[in-house]
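tool=predict chain=A
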Amino acid sequence: MIPSSIVGLSSGALYFGSLETDPLKPIFGFDPFMVYGFLTLGCLGAGALAGPTIGGALWRFTHRNQVDLIDEKEKEFLSRIAKNRVDVSLQTATAPVPDYYGERIGSLHQYRQWLRDQNKYRRKVVLPEKEE
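tool=predict ok
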């Protein structure tokens, strides 16, 4: 992300810095130097947005032999998430399903905690405690 941001910033600065500018002729009613400055920052943002896409494509190209293994493990993991999560029809407005997609899982410990949370919610909703 940072290298592509630097490339975007430098290419924007080179392009907009080389344009011949008349300071007395506004662009959309603004000072041309301000407009070119904001457009240069826009090039920085475009570089930052393009960076992860380019980096991911380069990584997948350079690690072609490992990509299939990683994709297979990710597919297996996502199928486990889909199999073990609570049925969404059981949720209520006051008690939503905790982390339905498993977005906060980053380690084996967090996965096990997610499983415990799902089972706890399932037991709470399906088998409510009887009030006496």
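The chain is about 65% helix and 0% strand. The longest helix spans residues 32-62.
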